[in-house]
Structure formats: C-alpha cells, structure tokens
Amino acid sequence: MTEVERLDYDVVVIGAGGAGLRAVIEARQRGLSVAVVCKSLFGKAHTVMAEGGCAASMGNANSNDNWQVHFRDTMRGGKFLNNWRMAELHAKEAPDRVWELETYGALFDRTADGRISQRNFGGHTYPRLAHVGDRTGLELIRTMQQKIVSLQQEDKRKYGDYEAKVKVFAECTITELLKDGGRIAGAFGYWRESGRFILFQAPAVVLATGGIGKSFKVTSNSWEYTGDGHALAMRAGATLINMEFVQFHPTGMVWPPSVKGILVTEGVRGDGGVLKNSDGKRFMFSYVPDVFKGQYADSEEEADRWYTDQENNRRTPDLLPRDEVARAINAEVKAGRGSPHGGVFLDIASRLTPEEIRKRLPSMYHQFKELADVDITAEPMEVGPTCHYVMGGIEVDPDTASSSVPGLFAAGECSGGMHGSNRLGGNSLSDLLVFGRRAGLGAASYVESLAERPKVAQSDVDAAARTALVPFDPPRQGVEENPYTLQNELQQTMNDLVGIIRKAEEIERALAKLDEIKERIGNVLVEGHRQFNPGWHLALDLRNMLLVSECVARAALLRTESRGGHTRDDYPQMDSHWRNKLLVCETTTDDPLAPGVRVTPKDQEPLRQDLLELFELDELAKYYTDEELAAHPGRQA
Ligand code: FAD
After folding, report:
1. Where does a domain end: 356, 387, 418?
2. Which of 50, 78, 563, 569 is the least crowded, having the fewest Cβ atoms under 10 Å away?
3. 372 Cβ contact partners less than 8 Å away, ≥ 6 residues apart
4. Where does the record place the catalytic residues (predicted)?
C-alpha cells in the first residue's frame, strides 16, 4: 500500500489566489473546516501580479456609472457570448465586494474628496477600476490573507488551535480528484519539497487554480499556469466551455528576449499612454471595428480631450477591448511598421511628467529600467501581444459555482462563461471576489446538505500514486523523453499554430503535433528521486498542459468565425449564428496520462428579456440573428 498522509476536511480549496482565498473566507465563516492548497508559496499567485485594478461600478469617478452600464460593457467586450447570468451577478455584486475588502483592511487609492479612486481601462465606459497604484492584486491578496489570519485568531480563542478551521498547505500540488459513486470524495497530491504523497478526504472541492498561459511560448503568466484545475475537472468528468477563446494582451514586453511576454499594464494607456507605429502615427484610429463605430473618438484632439472631459468627448481607440488592440498591433508589425524588436511603441513619456509617471506607474517604471534599461519617463516602450488570460474554463452554475460533478466547484480564471469571448481588463479581480465568495457559499451549502459523506477508495489512491510515479519508471525502455523538450515543443506549437491569428490548416498541424506529443508523453523519464525534483513536477504538469491545449485547438478548429479572443484568418468575420453556441469539451477515455477530447456545440440559454432590453436594437442587430430579436420591444413597435 502506498504511504500517504491522510487528512479530513469539509472543503478543500485548490489555489490560493484571489478566487481561492475569497472562497476560503466564506466557507470558514459558515463554520466549515477548510484546507487551502497551493503549489507555489502562499501569497505567490497570479492575483499578486495584477496591476491595473478591480472593476466595480461604484460611480466615484463618474456618477453615471451603475451595474447596468458595467453589465453592458462586459457583454460587449465578450461579444455577447458571455454567460449573461454571471455577467449580471458580477456587475451587481462587484461594488459590495470591493467595499468589503476595505472592511478587511484594504486601502485603495483615493479621490481628492476621500472616495475610492477609479481609473480608465479598455472597454469600460467610465473610469471604473479601483486600484492601489499599479499593485492592486498585491493589496487584494494581502488583505484576504490578513482576514484569514484574523479568522484563525478567532479559532485559537475558541478551539485552542489557530489551524482548527483553516489550514494552509503551501508548495503542495494536487494531481488528482477522487470520487465515490460520481461524487467528489477527495483530492490527492504531493509535497513539492519532499515528494511525499498527501490525501485530502473531503466531500467538496473548490478549484481556483487560475489559467493555462504556460501552454504558449510568449506569455505574461508564470510557471504555475499549466491548466491544472481545468484538467483535474475534466478528468473527474466535468465539462469545459469557451476554450477556443484565449486572450492575447496587446502590450507585453518584446525586448530583451529573456523578458519577452512580461505584462505592460493597460493602466499605461488608461493614464494617457498612446500606441504609435514606426512612422510615429497613432494607428489605433484606423482600427475601430464596425461594431464599435460611433463609440470611439475619430481624431487625436477628441481622444485627448476625453481624458479630462468624458461627458463631451468619445474615448480614445487606444482603449478598445484587448482583442481589437492586439490584432491592430499584429497588423502594424506585419505591414512593416513595427518597432526594432517586432512590437510597436507605447508612449507615456510625452504625455505625463516624469513625476506623474513614477507616481502612477511605479512598477512599470522599475520593470523597464531594471529589465530593459529603458527610462519610460524619457522614451517610449516597445510592446507586443502576449498570451495573458483564458476565457474558457470549467462550466459552472452561475449562482453556486458548482460544476456538473456533485461536490466540485470552480471560481476565478479556471471557470468559464463569465467573460464570453473576451475579458475586459479589471473584470478578473472583481470576478474572483464575486464568484470566489459564491463558490465558498455553494460548497458550504452542499456539504451541509449531505446525509452521508463520500468515502475515498484505497484502489483510487493507489492508482493516483502509480500515475504520479510513472515518470520515474516509464513502461517503454530506450525511447525516453525529456519533459523540458516536450514542454518546449508544445509551447512553440500552440504559439505558432493556435496563437493570435489562426487558420484551419495550421490548427490541423497543431493537432497532429499534439497527437505526437500524446504518444511520447508516456515515455517521459525523470532523473533522481522525489525530493524537490523540478523535472518530475514538470512531467506531471505536462499532461495537464497537453489536455487543455488539445481543448483549445479542437474548439478553435470547430468555430468557423472570428470573435473576441479567437481570430480565424480563413473566417475573418463574426457570424451571428455562432453567437449563442458554446463548445463543450469533455474527455472520451479514462487514460490518466492522455485522455481523448470531444468537443460538442450546444446552445446557450437566451438572454433574459429585461437584460436584453438594456441594449438598443441597433446594437443587438450587430450580434444577433433576426429570429433571436423577434421578441425585442423595438422590433415589435
Ligand atoms: P491565481 O491568482 O493564479 O491563483 C492560482 C492558485 O492556484 C495559485 O495559488 C497556484 O499555486 C494554485 N495552483 C495551481 N495549480 C495547482 C495545483 N495543481 N495544486 C495546488 N495548487 C495549484 N486582472 C484584473 O482584473 N486586473 C488587472 O489589473 C490584472 N493584471 C494582471 C497582470 C498580470 C501580469 C497577470 C498575469 C494577470 C493580470 N490580471 C488582471 C488577471 C488576473 O490577475 C488573474 O486572472 C487572476 O489573478 C486569477 O486569479 P485566480 O484566483 O483564478 O488564480
């Protein structure tokens, strides 16, 4: 029998970013015992890296803002493919979640009259992002960790043990979810330092593992983003949706090569920075797509006036949604009007004083100074698209965050639906707070409703341990593979063939390459033993990367249109017949290393009538089919 440390909890939260921590707080406040597991150090998650801010229609910077405007912006950004109920809950609840953070001890930047200050971001009608300089995510995590410590202090007083109700398991990776008769029964993993196995026996698991960016060569994401939650859920029988939609942030660093892909926050453009090509032209005015015509300024003068007078001017096209800006940069570079290192220029130096730049964008100032030897107060930055965020994820019930597997919940970037085909900047941090809380509540209610707890079968534990140990002793001798080589081939394939611009022939080549990697993954061999062994860790992450990459590629091949974070060179237009179609991914075999993937289209539930009526008929007609709009009052009048 495999040697395994065994622990019992009511809820296991996998992931200690914003979504995970918010779920922990909620489940603990309902009195449940909660384990929070993270494969990196506690406090090191993507949420910490979030710079620009957290979108919430508090109306502090412009009193015309409200949840309906935020809802409309989110749906437009997602090209009306969003799960509208999620977008509705998000827009309605985000302001309360931001306020609540201040009750935990957060301190956002202030307006002159002492309210939470809000900044402009792409696709948001009004300044809406609550922020702390360009280190907003750090404040979110710091505050939620502080809240958890205060809950642990309460538990110490009540039970004599700080960890009686909430315990953190850092540098601990979950590799498998275990079930009992179709219901979640626990989670299996290993300590990264010792390599020893650990089993959490629990009736409810909340996945909050973030995204999949490490499947692409050029990315703003760090090493943990290997799609673990997506893959864990799929292997446990849950479905993924929207996997073809991958956000390429328009502004990543392009030089030097060692830092290629690192994010340059949209806050630079929100605070006045403009994009220019090698001719010095502000090219974004030439790239306003038809669906946004009339909503954006058509001259530099109007765009510049908008920063100080938003009532009487339209916003700058530099702040179009990310998919539009990324495609525009791609087109400029392709047309030979790029910067020396294959990007374009982002100029804040000629727009703000050096003091203002250092005050408003301190991280960006240091990032460029230290990594590229560029002084952004004196010269423009060179920027280009970088893989940043996945809109696709685990299909969940909007209100409870439950997946199709009883006891399995998901929130944050690893869940799907909320952002449709393209996420607006700032809408992730608010998503984490709104749906992290709902996942914690959903898991708590589920656990409380159980008459009997599921049990973990020893045979499942043994099987999970066997799968984890395969890379030390692969079945076929003489054909061993290096995990780093396979990872590199996978990343390059996804980058080159399923990247920002796609076409059928290239996606098919990518799928053929992924099939080849599937054949080879069983031969991955790692040297050494289980104590801190990065090669082994990567070998285990690889099967997740492979599974989610196949989902992205298969769904991208099926969707024969261009929408949001999915651009097909061979189908360049948005097609209204695809608008309400979700592509649902599920596994077809139980192969623990490389299960097959099936992608099936299904219709999305129609937008509720009162929400539909928040939009003008003319606007909806750009996205919807005639039949879908038959019930709109504007059509019936
Ligand atoms: P994360 O914060 O990434 O947390 C994931 C957690 O899961 C980590 O603790 C990780 O260790 C753990 N984990 C993963 N796999 C396993 C496993 N197998 N076992 C155990 N633990 C596991 N969004 C905004 O709204 N505004 C912004 O200004 C903004 N700026 C950004 C800047 C950068 C550079 C980046 C990369 C993203 C930015 N985003 C922004 C996006 C946003 O930060 C992320 O989408 C969001 O933080 C994801 O949060 P999460 O809680 O879902 O996951």
Report:
1. 387
2. 569
3. 253, 255, 256, 259, 381
4. 322 (proton acceptor)
